[in-house]
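Exercise: predict the fold of this chain.
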Amino acid sequence: TAELLFCFTHSPKEGITLTINNTSCQRINFDFPSRFLPTVFILVFIVGLVANGWGFNYLLHNWKKFKIINVFVLNLGLADILYLLTLPFLMVYYFMKSKWIFGDAFCKITRFCFNLNLYGSIGFLTCISVYRYLAIVHPVRMMGRLTVTYSVAISVMVWLLVSVQSLPDMLYTKTSGNKPGKCYDTTHKTYVEDYLKYSLGWTLTGFCLPLLITLGCYGHVIVILCRQNTTDKVLKKRCLRLLLILIVLFSVCYIPYHVFRNLNLWSRVLLEQKKCREWSNRVYIARQISRGLVCLNSALNPLVYLHGNENITAQLRQLLQRARQMFRHPPPTDSGSVPMNQITD
């Protein structure tokens, strides 16, 4: 579509002059989320439940092995489960072409659970990184100070901090009213300019700061491990593996989401100001893809539980072999027990 901007200027000598600014505005593809997100939600729901169940089982059987860090890993899993339980409602929402039928209060609760999962996951991953840093770089100084009680207290603080950061989001309008309509993950266009300011501050404190802390901790840890040739090779391997997992989580799940959330909000602000940008549709599509990618953190976080499991490759191979055997050799059925005259289509 084309947006025609008319500008009238008046001069006593020249009379009225009509200036036409023809700006091409590409149509926003609002149907894309309903085609893309349900498939992602179904995949994340199934894989996330299986992976977190497997992760919890491994965690409980190895509780004494990893000691204090298990408190943070357990809370990371609880944040994932909290979000996974809301996915069936979001599936219904997008299957119904973005029509929310569960009421305004539950819409806000659903979005709040997502934010708790997202920023709770980032917070607990940061705690795990700091713990690794202190245990490797300052082992003598921290001996006896890193206790389970201390870890529980920090976990409670993380939950409280994330909740305080996420509560203002619930104060913004999330639905179109009492009738079935939108369940905004941000807010209605009326308040989008204020929400952009809130989102930028939220991104800085809830994402950028933890990211810098995590990078600083693991950067120092890698330097120390590389300098000390006597360091246990298994410890090096585990630290490098966890660093790789964190790089994947931040690069795939967290960074694109925060970049395109704020870009899309800025695009909406410009549209409200009658300023058309040709990149608006591309940013909107990228924003929806990033929403799908950020959901994957609930399926990928269990890798943090399992990164210390040296037999994980062998266990996965065994599971795949069992699955193949089940498909190739289905259990026998007693075909003679059913009379021919009772067989139906």
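Check your answer against the key: The two ends are 53 Å apart (CA to CA).
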